[in-house]
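Input record, target 12 of the design panel.
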């Protein structure tokens, strides 16, 4: 029977989809350095939180598939996996609606000063209402940095809220965006300067990591809110801390940081103008059930020798291991 290592337990439907079909090992740790002894004997690795790097992949001769129950795969060395004929299974677009909804919830939380107001009200400070920190969103502009599945959904939701929408995405042409009634920006600086809300929807890639830094925050309006439910390392965190501390921008709604789980002593944790959640945008009951079931099905399909279509590295099927399948 195949052995599947699952970094952390999957939501119940995913575990049920795997039970009885393989031996399941759950170390409650996804760091390949710490669980390498377990990984060396694994046929599959389902990675929720953690990473698997080249050093580990090259030690795992039995490994046939690596699965990410989500769309992001920056914590997997895809190049090393491809070299060894290992498909990296992902779940594209399955979480788009949930992440878009969470982004809009962060927008509301920032706009209405929700978190601070709840905390102060629970302390008995009814007069927090007189801070007049909340703002209206009608007529305000949200600028989307990235216009994939999630960005498009956020645009639709914000349009329904009577907001204006702008788009910056070097991979999406103006001709696609403007007929939708949205503004289009050729330059990032122009996009940042025009938004009342800047919402990040770009993946973590060598070309995007750290792309939002001191200069970019300085280009934003002092009344602007920055939203990020994408990837933490696209942002220069120390620069964001300084921008929030010094009033360069009004506030931020964040679902991701560079280090996760997020350390409790991170400077952002104590800032009253920051709403922060624990990378939970896709963790709704409905979406998680869909994600983990898709992840389980993809893992088992590859273990059966099938060419599962939803992989981060489709070129892997050119590897000699897949020549006769």
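The sequence produced for target 12 reads:
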């Amino acid at each position: 029977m195949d052995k599947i290592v699952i970094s952390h337990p999957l939501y119940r439907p995913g575990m049920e989809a795997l039970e009885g079909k393989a031996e399941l090992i759950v170390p409650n740790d996804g760091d390949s350095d710490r669980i390498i002894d377990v990984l060396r004997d694994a046929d599959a690795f389902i990675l929720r939180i953690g990473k698997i790097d080249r050093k580990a992949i090259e030690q795992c001769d039995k490994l046939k598939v690596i699965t990410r129950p989500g769309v992001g795969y920056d914590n997997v060395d895809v190049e090393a996996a491809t070299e060894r004929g290992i498909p990296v299974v992902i779940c594209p677009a399955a979480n788009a609606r949930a992440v878009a909804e969470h982004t809009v919830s962060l927008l509301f939380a920032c706009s209405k000063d929700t978190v601070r107001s709840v905390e102060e009200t629970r302390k008995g400070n009814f007069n927090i209402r007189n801070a007049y920190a909340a703002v209206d969103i009608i007529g305000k502009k949200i600028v989307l940095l990235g216009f994939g599945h999630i960005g498009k959904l956020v645009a639709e939701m914000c349009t329904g809220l009577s907001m204006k929408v702008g788009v910056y995405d070097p991979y999406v042409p103006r001709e696609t965006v403007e007929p939708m009634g949205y503004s289009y920006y050729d330059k990032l600086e122009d996009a940042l300067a025009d938004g009342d809300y800047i919402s990040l929807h770009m993946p973590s890639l060598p070309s995007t990591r750290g792309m939002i830094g001191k200069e970019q925050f300085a280009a934003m309006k002092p009344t602007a809110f920055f939203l990020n439910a994408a990837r933490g390392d696209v942002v220069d965190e120390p620069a964001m801390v300084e921008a929030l501390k010094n009033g360069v921008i009004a506030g931020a709604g964040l679902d991701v940081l560079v280090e996760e789980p997020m350390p409790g002593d991170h400077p952002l944790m104590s800032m009253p103008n920051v709403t922060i959640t624990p990378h939970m945008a896709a963790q709704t009951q409905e979406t998680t059930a869909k994600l983990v079931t898709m992840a389980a099905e993809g893992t088992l399909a590859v273990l059966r020798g099938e060419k599962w279509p939803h992989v981060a590295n489709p070129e892997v099927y050119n590897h000699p291991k897949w020549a006769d399948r």
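DSSP finds twelve helices and twelve strands in the chain.
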